[in-house]
Amino acid sequence: MRYYSYSEKLKEKYGEKVYKIPVDIGATCPNRDGKISYGGCIFCSPQGAGFESLCSKISPSEQLEKNISYIGQKYKAKKFIAYLQNYTNTYMEPEKLRNILKELIRDDIVEIAISTRPDCIDKDILDAIDSIKKEYGVNITIELGLQSIKDSTLLKINRGHTVEDFYKSVSEIQKYHFEICVHIILNLPWDNDEDLVYCAKELSRIGVNNVKIHSLYIVKNTRLSEMFENGEISLISKDEYINRLGLFIGNLSPKICVERFFARAPEEETLFCNFGHSWRKLKNDFDDYIEKNNIYQGKDIKNENRNYRGDDLGNRKDKKFYQSFRNCYNCKI
Question: Where does 6-327 sit in CATH, by number?
Answer without folding.
Answer: 3.80.30.30
